[in-house]
DNA sequence: GTGTCATGCTCGCTGAGCCTGACACT
């Protein structure tokens, strides 16, 4: 059941049923659950919920009673972040009729009392008292969709999407693609979608569109096309590989201070004549040409202020924006930051490997699905056919 | 009664294991 939409609906359910309801006392955990106790107790509190991706956050907020003495033992609000595993959900029932597998219970202060329960049949779900959204999760596909409206140069430094790309690589890649650094990431990535004519081939004799089979385009033709017009993903692979192939003459030269090979290879980053701007995260992006529609408003650099003009304002100036310092100096300056970046990349590579494994596992799972299931699984279908059939059968059996 | 499968995630390794319930099959 629980994917993003289900978790969001669960948060709405909690907020709806708990609106105006006062909860009281301890938060009760089932004995069998291995999750941690929730160290929260309060005479009167309310519950609200929000969601982000596959997480739901319950906020327990104490209600201040009138006449409560100041300086008394006041309860503190608490956030509890839930992950639903394979079978988690919330139910609001009478306290005497707790659902089976209700592993965390919040009781109302009414008589008879009612209970909001976190129900989890398989116990793969978890909760984290005083928790927050997991930091290694990407943006919520439902409510942080606008993340992809950020400039491509900023998205490229997000290691969740481009694990391994740093400041010099993004500059080189965008330069080679002739892409404005402040173009919307969505626009650039949308360009990766196959064009209609590549996806569909009209067979006049049938009057139908058929998917173009891989085999219908020869491998050599594909390679030729790729070499002629590589896309951003191609370059995110090939450009770093070029650096690797420099051996000991790349960014971290084996000979101290011998940046000559690397400098000769750079086409944009710190190259005299190229422009540079600070992106919205304060990182300097090097580029050529128009910065793009989302470029930040340029504040006057001290030099420009003295000259009385904004960066990039003077169209006659071929070097719009901040001109680069001599390459070697700039490279050395960047090295510290790059080293930090490498440490971060290392810690994140673990996650990437996991994701790859998951991907391969899920594809295995798909292979195991029957042909019927594959054909009838519609995008967004919450219940797989096999399980859906089972539950429907169960229901009909019960009904009968 | 047994085996398999299910929408997630972690550990520590490239799959196994955590869990329960429903269903198919013998």
Protein model, in words:
The protein has helices at 4-18, 152-155, 167-177, 185-190, 196-199, 219-228, 232-245, 260-265, 302-307, 327-368, 371-376, 385-399; strands at residues 23-29, 41-52, 55-62, 78-83, 88-94, 102-108, 114-120, 126-129, 200-203, 208-211, 275-278, 284-287. With 400 residues, the chain is an alpha+beta fold. Strands 5-7-6-1-2-3-4-8 form an eight-stranded antiparallel sheet. A hairpin with a 5-residue loop joins strand 6 (102-108) and strand 7. Helix 3 (167-177) crosses helix 7. It is elongated. Residues 196-216 and 298-400 have low confidence and may be disordered. The chain binds one DNA strand of 26 nucleotides through residues 1-3, 6, 34, 54, 83-88, 101, 120-126, 350, 353-354, 356-358, 360-361, 365, 368, 382-384, 386-387, 389-391, 393-394.
């Amino acid at each position: 059941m629980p994917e993003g939409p289900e978790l969001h609906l669960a948060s709405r359910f909690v907020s709806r049923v708990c609106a105006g309801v006062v909860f009281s006392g301890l938060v009760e955990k089932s004995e069998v659950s291995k999750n941690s106790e929730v160290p929260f107790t309060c005479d009167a509190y309310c519950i609200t919920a929000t969601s982000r991706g596959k997480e739901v956050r319950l906020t327990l907020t104490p209600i201040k009673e009138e006449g409560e003495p100041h300086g008394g033992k006041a309860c503190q609000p608490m956030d509890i972040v839930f992950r639903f595993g394979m079978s988690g959900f919330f139910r609001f029932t009478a306290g005497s009729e707790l659902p089976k597998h209700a592993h965390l219970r919040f009781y109302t202060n009414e008589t008879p009392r009612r209970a909001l329960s976190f129900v989890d049949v398989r116990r793969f779900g978890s909760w984290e008292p005083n928790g927050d959204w997991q930091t290694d999760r990407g943006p919520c596909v439902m409510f942080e969709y606008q993340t992809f409206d950020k400039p491509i140069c900023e998205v490229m430094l997000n290691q969740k999407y481009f694990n391994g790309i740093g400041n010099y690589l993004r500059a080189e890649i965008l330069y080679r693609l002739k892409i404005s650094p402040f173009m919307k990431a969505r626009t650039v990535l949308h360009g990766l979608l196959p064009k209609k004519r590549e996806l569909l081939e009209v067979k006049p004799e049938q009057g139908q569109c058929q998917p173009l089979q891989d085999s219908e385009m020869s491998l050599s033709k594909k390679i030729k096309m790729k070499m002629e017009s590589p896309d951003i993903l191609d370059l995110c692979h090939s450009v770093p590989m070029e650096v690797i192939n420099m051996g000991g003459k790349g960014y971290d030269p084996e000979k101290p201070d011998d940046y000559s090979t690397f400098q000769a290879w750079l086409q944009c980053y710190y190259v005299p004549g190229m422009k540079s701007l600070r992106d919205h995260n304060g990182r300097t992006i090097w580029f050529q040409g128009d910065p793009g529609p989302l470029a930040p408003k340029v504040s006057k650099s001290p030099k420009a202020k003295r000259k009385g003009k904004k960066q990039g304002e003077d169209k006659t100036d071929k070097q719009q924006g901040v001109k680069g310092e001599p390459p070697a100096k700039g490279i050395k300056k960047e090295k510290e930051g790059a080293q930090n970046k490498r440490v971060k990349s290392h810690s994140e590579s673990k996650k990437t490997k996991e994701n790859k494994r998951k991907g391969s596992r899920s594809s295995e799972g798909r292979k195991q699905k029957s042909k019927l299931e594959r054909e009838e699984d519609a995008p967004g279908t919450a219940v797989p056919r096999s399980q859906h059939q089972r539950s429907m059968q169960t229901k009909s059996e019960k009904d009968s």
